[in-house]
């Protein structure tokens, strides 16, 4: 015969107290429970391997213990590192981390947020940049206001077009930092491989490059902006298109490291050596950037640290009700061997 489900009454019987007392211990109630009774309840829970019914608890408390994390591409090291950092900090606490992979689709992102709203998520992290889409903005505005009314904590990594706690990663600044490095090494003819067209992060990084060039009396011609999608394959495809303009440029800024790595691989495949023939830089400092050939010069956005900062912020605001501020991360230029000094 199958073992019967262990209930709060079984714990109370073993601990020789009432089910109400057991509930108070489980929920860290403000109602006083003696140390001796609390120890008996905890010992009974351990002996019976009792797990509280979190759904029932959620219905009573209007809390779900769910933290939703919305990412654009879970295969991208950028998001994988961030989620790893969040879970590292949340692990050991009684929260469920739900990850939604949306592939930068308006429909998928709206669906994910609706699902989290229906399940009364305690917090939602928009880990990817905002989608530059009117339908997205209109639909999300309504849902966001409903989530706020529910008391859900909302955190956006990079600015989003609705009133939530938006954390600036410094995407424009990152592009300026790495562009300045190219300029210091004598590069004036710089091309750009873009990110996804509907992504605000791509826009900010492109504007950072343009602004730094403008500060130095230079421009970024439209014909030197090549399509990309933040992926290795996107960088490889961009390299093939860039071959037609190879004599007009001395350096390329890729919108992220994955793109830069694909670019370097395909340029090498086409007989174009980095950095001897052309210099390449990226943004993010993904773990694999140091292992490319040559190792990639980039700007470090310490994504794992960002993830742990997110986890810390959520726990302090959910569990300890601290209303704490978010700890920002520092950008740093990582000089490796993909830039040639031509000054």
TrEMBL record:
Highest taxon listed in the record's lineage: Bacteria
Molecular-function GO term, any one: DNA-binding transcription factor activity
UniProt entry keywords in alphabetical sequence: DNA-binding, Transcription, Transcription regulation
Domain HTH lacI-type: 6-61
Residues spanning the membrane: none
SMART domains membership: HTH_LACI
Pfam families: LacI, Peripla_BP_3
The name this protein goes by in its record: Transcriptional regulator, LacI family
Lineage: Bacteria, Bacillati, Bacillota, Clostridia, Halanaerobiales
């Amino acid at each position: 015969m199958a073992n019967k489900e262990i209930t709060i009454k079984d714990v109370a019987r073993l601990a020789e107290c009432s089910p109400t007392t057991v509930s108070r211990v489980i929920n860290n109630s403000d109602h006083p429970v003696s140390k001796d009774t609390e120890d008996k309840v905890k010992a009974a829970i351990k002996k019976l391997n009792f797990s509280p019914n979190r759904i029932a608890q959620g219905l009573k408390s209007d809390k779900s213990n769910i933290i939703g994390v919305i990412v654009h591409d879970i295969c991208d090291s950028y998001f994988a590192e961030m989620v790893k950092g969040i879970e590292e900090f949340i692990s050991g606490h009684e929260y469920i981390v739900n990850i939604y992979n949306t592939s930068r689709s308006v429909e998928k992102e709206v669906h994910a947020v609706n699902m989290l709203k229906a399940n009364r998520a305690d917090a939602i992290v928009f880990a990817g940049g905002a989608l530059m889409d009117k339908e997205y903005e209109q639909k999300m505005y309504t849902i966001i206001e409903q989530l706020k009314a529910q008391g859900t904590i909302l955190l956006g990594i990079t600015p989003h077009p609705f009133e939530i706690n938006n954390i600036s990663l410094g995407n424009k600044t990152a592009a300026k930092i790495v562009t300045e490095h190219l300029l210091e090494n004598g590069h004036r003819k710089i091309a750009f491989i873009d990110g996804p067209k509907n992504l605000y992060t791509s826009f900010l990084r492109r504007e950072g490059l343009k602004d730094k060039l403008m500060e130095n009396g230079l421009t970024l011609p439209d014909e030197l902006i090549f399509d990309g999608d933040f992926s290795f394959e996107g960088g490889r495809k961009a390299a093939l298109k860039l071959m037609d303009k190879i004599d007009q440029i001395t350096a390329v800024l890729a919108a992220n490291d994955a793109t830069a790595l694909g670019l370097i691989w395909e340029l090498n495949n086409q007989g174009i050596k980095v950095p001897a023939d052309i210099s390449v830089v990226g943004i993010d400092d993904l773990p694999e950037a140091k292992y490319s050939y040559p190792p990639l010069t980039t700007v470090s956005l310490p994504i794992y640290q960002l993830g742990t900062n997110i986890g810390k912020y959520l726990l302090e605001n959910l569990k300890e009700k601290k209303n704490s501020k978010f700890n920002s991360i520092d950008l740093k230029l990582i000089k490796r061997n993909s830039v040639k000094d031509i000054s």
